[in-house]
Structure formats: C-alpha cells, structure tokens
Amino acid sequence: MHEITLCQRALEIVEQQATQHGAKRVTGVWLKVGAFSCVETSAMTFCFDLVCRGTLAEGCKLHVEEQEAECWCEKCQQYVQLLSVHVRRCPQCQSNDLRIVADDGLQIQRIEIDQE
C-alpha cells in the first residue's frame, strides 16, 4: 500500500503551505489522482485521515478527484482519454495498442485553511 507514503508527503506540503499562510488548522484538501497512478481512493482517504492525526490537518475533509489519462492510439492515430486503469482499449476503435502520454500522478489542487 503506497497510499500511506503519498499521504505523508502530501501532508508535509499541506502543513508547509498552511504554516506559511498563518493557518490555525486545515479544514479541506483537494487532490487530483491520475487514472493510472494505481491509487485506491478508499485507501487514500483512510491513510490521509490516519497521517493527519495530531497535525494542523486533523479532521479536515479530503476531496479526491480522478483525472483521465491521455493516451495515443497507434491504430486510430489520435489521442484518447481514459478514466480507468481497467479499461485499456481505445474508445474509438477498441484497439489495445495504446501508449500513455500523460497521467499526472497525484497533485494537490487546493487547501482550505482556518486562520482564526
């Protein structure tokens, strides 16, 4: 389960940004997860809650959005978007000769803080 490591690193960044902006606590975090990043959303939510205990982010709401991966279809000769790692066929021609072009892994999109 690599989600715990991803959550620990994300929390480091969240706490750093929150501290720089004078936060008393973090109330929300928005993450974007790439479709082929092999991140299980339920495990991510569980791990994030776990690593946030005793920090500025304890009890914050985690929002996870899955991002489509951009792939190149050799048969169609065009770019296609895929949302699931389990679907590895071109939605246009059903070919499985796809090359992943862009899948941004994990990104912190937004942090909500309370300064009072």
UniProtKB/TrEMBL annotation:
Q: What keywords are assigned to this protein?
A: Metal-binding, Nickel, Zinc
Q: Does the keyword Membrane apply?
A: no
Transmembrane annotation, as ranges = none
Keyword Translocase carried by entry? no
Q: Which residues bind Zn(2+)?
A: C73, C76, C90, C93
**Chain positions recorded as Ni(2+) binding sites:** H2
* InterPro entries xrefs: Hydgase_Ni_incorp_HypA/HybF_CS, HypA/HybF
User: What HAMAP family does this protein's entry cite?
Assistant: HypA_HybF
Question: What protein family is recorded?
Answer: Belongs to the HypA/HybF family.
Concerning NCBIfam families, the annotation shows: hypA, PRK03681.1, PRK12380.1
| Job of this protein | Involved in the maturation of [NiFe] hydrogenases. Required for nickel insertion into the metal center of the hydrogenase.
| Name the record gives this protein | Hydrogenase maturation factor HypA
**Source organism:** Pseudocitrobacter vendiensis
Q: What is the organism lineage in this UniProt record?
A: Bacteria, Pseudomonadati, Pseudomonadota, Gammaproteobacteria, Enterobacterales
